[in-house]
Amino acid sequence: MNYFKWTVLFFGFIANAQTPVWSLEQDNLLFIEEGKVLSQEKSILFSTKGNIVFKGNSSSFKDILFTLALDSVSQKKEGIIYDKKGSASQFSLQESMVYFEYKGESYGVVTLLKNEGSWAIYNNLNDSLLAYIPNLQLSSATLFATFYALWNSNGMKDQLIESLKVSNAASMDGLAVMQPVFGAGIVWVWDGTYLYPNGVNMSHSMVWKFEDNKLNPVHYPRNQEEWAWDGQGLKPYWGGNPQSQWTWQNGVLRQIWNNNHQNEYFIDDNIIRKRFGSYGDNEWEIKGDMPLPLITAVVLGLLFR
Asked: Is the model's pTM score more than 0.70?
């Protein structure tokens, strides 16, 4: 874009207190004005107040679409997004990624990337830039409402369903999966080298590498989060509290020191579950050749630290 055109656009949206939502080619997809998301024709699609997203130009209880239970889109803890009835919706947010639950599984559909002076909304389904917003001063609700408008206008639910059809039809050679038996938790994929949540970009902070009996995060490496497999159990690579060391004995996973039998696990066919817990309590289905150290790391929740 030449300097004159950029200047006109920049001062244009400042003067009108509007922020454009641009495509990669800098076409106007949407507009944002005072917490409202507007269409190309300037009709109000969604309004936001605090962490609440309303339908149209409304702040009425009956027009609530979503309520975001989160502090920021980048928080490590999963942020639940509730629907108008107060139930968990199909959407959730964690570490700048929007997840969508479909048929009991959760898929990372977009990543919200904060760059210098702008937000970028990255489509994980087709590995492309969905839009970018030249304004960092947006609330989480406004950012989510913008995503939701693009989700609808781009038919992204249909994209996800189609991609799953293609994925299911493709060969699973060399791939393994661990998914929660109940609920919409993260589905973990193992490709022979890397372990990662299904649907994430490979630059995501939750991508792990398992090589030479060492498990560690690929990006933002942290010594306290490196794990070693000794052929029978997992322990911190650099040593540490014995209570952080786990081992498999006679088909049962337990702590080496000060073990609590309530936290022991075993594998029954392709399901790993607690020996003495209720069904569904941290219960995972294993598909394909998932290495035992990775099964251990997933079920113990080590990958979220």
From this structure: no
Under DSSP, the state recorded for 231 is: S
DSSP symbols for 265-296? EEEETTEEEESSSPTTTT-EEEES---HHHHH
- Structural domain range at position 75: 16-161
Q: How far is CA 290 from the centre of its chain?
A: 21
pLDDT (tens place) for every residue of the chain, 305 residues total: 443 344 444 444 444 579 999 998 889 999 999 999 999 999 999 999 999 999 999 999 999 999 999 999 999 999 999 999 999 999 999 999 999 999 888 899 999 999 888 999 999 888 889 999 999 899 999 999 999 999 999 999 998 988 776 555 444 556 899 988 886 678 899 999 999 988 888 888 889 999 999 999 998 766 567 899 999 999 888 776 666 788 999 999 998 887 788 889 999 889 999 988 766 678 999 998 899 999 999 999 888 65
- Asked if residue 150 and residue 176 are part of one domain, the reply reads no
226 and 272 part of one domain: yes
